[in-house]
Amino acid sequence: MRLLILLLVSIFLILPLTFLWIASLFIDKDQEYETDSPFYRKLLYLGTAVLLYPLRIKVHFTGKEKIPRTKKVMFVYNHVSNFDPILLWQELRRWDIAFLSKEENFKAPIFGRFAKRCCFMAIDRENPREALKTINKAAELLKNKAVSIGASPEGTRSKTGELLPFHDGVFKVAKKADAPVVVVRIRDTEKIRKNVLRRRSDVYYEVVDVIRPGDAEWKNVHMISERARKAMLG
Fold first, then answer.
1. What's the pTM value of the predicted model, to 2 decimals?
2. Are 147 and 119 in contact (CB under 8 A)?
3. Would 130 disulfide with which of 50, 73, 124, 138, CB 3.0-4.6 Å?
4. How far apart (Å, rounded) are the C-alpha atoms in residues 164 and 167?
5. Helix, strand, coil share of the chain (percent; to 5)
6. End-to-end CA distance of the chain
7. Is the dihedral of CA 59, 62, 65, 67 positive or negative?
8. How many Å apart are CA 117 and CA 38, to the nearest integer?
9. Could you report the per-residue pLDDT of 79-134, keeping only the tens digit for each?
10. SS3 of residue 91 by DSSP
């Protein structure tokens, strides 16, 4: 019986992953895409579902009703685990989020290419000039409602769970595009790795604030950043 279960699991994983790998070969990993691909976006969601299924992750997501549903928005979140953006794009499929991420993530097999084709963008925080180019491109995509944008203002994963200092510059994306900022607080995703093959992981996502054009803080990115940080801290 155990052998049969392992065989079924292998088939369940190998066949879809083989298909996804073949599909990824048609993506130019060196090209910067200006439009989202509905086909590869669906494959991104499918591939994510296949990989997440064996991990037994239960996402408790509250506050979705606060998110504007008629236009593209920018999502910002605290970063405690590599699973944070993955679960966020899967839970908020309606908004087709493209994330600002470090260059290394685009080297991941299959998903690195899918991310590139779905307008995810590499941001070099060590090079202000290059980072600004990425921010301007993200703002243009958001303004044109090609995708929603996702980013962690911390810029890197917090190893202690404590909220790190924010990089105010990411909020220029929303400011330039005149798009709402949806603030998401994430808890317990760092436990997923520890729980693999042992128990189900319960993780918590909560929309804690929506900062809109016209709010008092919209005067400058530092004020938007401060409000987002306070909302995450609760």
1. 0.92
2. yes
3. 124
4. 9
5. 50, 15, 35
6. 49
7. negative
8. 10
9. 999 999 999 999 999 999 999 999 999 999 999 999 999 999 999 888 889 999 99
10. helix
